[in-house]
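Let's practice the habit of predicting before peeking. Look at the sequence and jot down your guess about where helices and strands might fall. Then scroll down.
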Amino acid sequence: MFTGIIQAVGEITQIQPISDDSNNGLSLRIFAGELDLSDVKVGDSIAVNGVCLTITSFCVNQFTVDVSQETLSCTQGFNQTGICVNLEKALRLSDRLGGHLVSGHVDATGIVVKFEPAGESYELIIRAPDSILRYLTHKGSVTVNGVSLTVNQVEGNEFSVNLIPHTLAMTTLNELVPGIRVNLESDMLARYVAGLLNI
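Done guessing? Here is the structure:
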């Protein structure tokens, strides 16, 4: 479980097949940036661009994770070295919940339609599939590449969020451009309510 409050920006430095079978996914080595790894151990969960992954090894400033073929098929951003990624260690019961409850199970990918200044902030508009749009509402929560954000508006097959300077400075969202794909996770509480109501 995570909060969507990014703790550091890292970088994918190495990508290798998990085995000779190309259907078994990839092993990623990630430079942890300023993320403190002193309290992690093999088997711990970490969110990488919003995807919950398991640490398979680590040292002072880097760690490795395995990404299954299933995860690769429904996410983006794990196929190239040099890519910067948002990092968050798993939530502890004693931690503050600064964002919202995030599972790290990406629902779908969306496409950036607009990313432009709006006063002192930036407006981000994303085109998303119906499978996630049905759970989005004005002032509700959404996770974009692991970042907890508040939905400003939902119109047709697009939704918009506002990005303040602090968010842009502390995450990779400042690198977004129209046409790029992003990992999306809807608010789990909205999904549970919809499931209970069968809507």
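How did you do? The chain has four helices and twelve strands.
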